[in-house]
Design goal:
Number of domains: 2
Strand order of the largest sheet: 5-6-7-3-8-9
Strand content: 15-25%
Bound molecules: adenosine-5'-triphosphate, magnesium ion
CATH topology of the largest domain: Rossmann fold
Number of strands: 9
Oligomer: single chain
CATH architecture of the largest domain: 3-Layer(aba) Sandwich
Structural class: alpha/beta
Shape: globular
Number of helices: 14
Largest sheet: 6 strands, mixed
CATH class of the largest domain: Alpha Beta
Helix content: 25-40%
Length: about 400
């Protein structure tokens, strides 16, 4: 009988021993006006560290300093005070820049280039040779669901399609640090799920991801640690477990029990309970999972002129693992319990995987099924997170060029 431990596992020693990728100390940025008078204190005495393989979230209300921190990290802005190191160097170090992929909060695209030319242009900036550029562009466009709109000018893309091409552009140089400013803004729920799976798979391969987002459920699904900004200052920081766990209560999830069994169990619990309330309810699936399920069924019978669902993680990000149809691998991974993912991935209790609905698996195995299966975070739903990871992982294995 599966018993799910709902609290995420505590932070392991692996994180603490991993290489420091980003180190920020006392970082302050004050924007000044024409007369050099302080106009906005955007970032104010911020300290944090991000280690290799972590997914690190920057949260905070509008204008709280997230994008300014990102621009400082990229060397696009100079700090007023404080110290930043990325891979042990200043962010302006040219070699360091070539190890970073960046998705800006606004899409800056040449509107008359098509998506293929856009990726070719950015590949050129990183001095990739023509073959590499072509190869990567093809895989990335497939991965982000734009394989069928390669020849359309990006200026006529919808907002979500522009986000997708921006994401492909951020990965063209096979970066070790990926910085994503609101990566899921404007994406449909399928795209959101795909981007989240991609982020987790990148981290499993030892890439470091820093992202900002207002979509707290997305952050909760993927991030290992977060900082919460307000007024340019960090108000809270830690692993999601540290910030969200309620150590004074416990949740047990079981299949439906006969009434008599339930009463016996409740009687035992109440006997030993000194104070507090015992609550019994039915878990619900979240809206994301339900939506993805409905769309997967609709896709089987309908055409769309918009973005397709991304197929698989680009080969070159994957590291030489022989490509198998995504659905096939997912089926394998779902039916074979696997070892816990690398320290980089958000920890998930193996035992939380429910029995698999064979009709959903069949839908996943379709080549046209969304690359991101409708599973959800183990902390909120009962769907199997390990399957998410393996699917995105399978997509990614070669893009990462074996640099695990
Ligand atoms: N180039 C600039 N010149 C002057 N002020 C700026 C500039 N860029 C940002 N600011 C100010 O710095 C503060 C932080 O802005 P920032 O863009 O970092 O916020 P954010 O947390 O990313 O917000 P959002 O969630 O809206 O994207 C704001 O008060 C903003 O007006
Ligand atoms: Mg911003």
């Amino acid at each position: 009988m599966p018993v799910a431990e709902l609290n995420p596992k505590p932070e392991t020693g692996d994180r603490r021993s991993a290489e420091v990728v980003v180190s920020i100390r006392g970082l302050t940025k004050v924007f000044k006006d024409f007369w050099n008078r302080p106009k906005a204190r955007a970032v104010d005495g911020v300290d944090f560290e991000v280690r290799r393989g972590e997914i690190f979230g920057l949260l905070g209300p509008n204008g709280s300093g997230k994008s300014t921190t990102i621009k400082l990290l990229l060397g696009l802005l100079h700090p007023t005070k404080g110290h930043i190191e990325v891979f042990g160097h200043s962010p302006r170090h040219v070699q360091t820049k070539s190890r970073i992929g960046y998705l800006p909060e606004e899409s800056y695209l040449y509107r008359y280039l098509n998506s293929r030319e856009t990726l070719d242009f950015f590949g050129n900036l990183f001095h990739l040779d023509k073959n590499d550029r072509n190869n990567r562009a093809e895989q990335l466009l497939e991965m982000v669901g734009l394989g069928k709109t390669q020849t359309r000018a990006v200026g006529e893309f919808s907002k979500g399609m522009q986000r997708r091409i921006g994401l492909a552009q951020a990965l063209i140089n096979d970066p070790d640090l990926v910085i994503l400013d609101e990566p899921t803004a404007g994406l449909d729920p399928i795209g959101c799920r795909e981007v989240k799976d991609l982020i987790v798979a990148l981290a499993r391969r030892g890439k470091t991801v820093i992202l900002s987002s207002h979509l707290l459920s997305d952050v909760e699904d993927v991030c290992d640690r977060v900082v919460i900004y307000y007024g340019g200052k960090i108000q809270a920081q830690g692993t999601l477990n540290e910030l969200l766990a309620k150590p004074d209560s416990l949740r047990i999830t079981t299949p439906v029990l006969p009434r008599e069994t339930l009463e016996k169990v409740l009687a035992i619990i109440r006997k030993d309970l000194v104070s507090g309330e015992v609550r019994v309810d039915n878990p619900t699936q979240n809206l994301e999972s339900y939506f993805l399920d409905v769309v997967a069924k609709a896709r089987a019978a309908n055409e769309t002129s918009g973005a397709q669902s991304g197929a698989r993680v680009a080969e070159y990000l994957r590291g030489g693992v022989e490509a198998k149809p995504a659905g096939e691998k997912v089926l394998e991974k779902l039916s074979l319990p696997q070892a816990a993912p690398a320290a980089a991935a958000k920890p998930v209790a193996e035992s939380s995987a429910p029995k698999v609905d064979s009709s959903k698996l069949a839908a996943l195995a379709q080549p046209t099924a969304p690359a991101a299966a409708p599973e959800k975070s183990a902390s909120k739903t009962e769907a199997p997170k390990p399957a998410d990871l393996s699917k995105a992982d399978e997509k990614l294995s070669s893009l990462l060029g074996g640099k695990k």
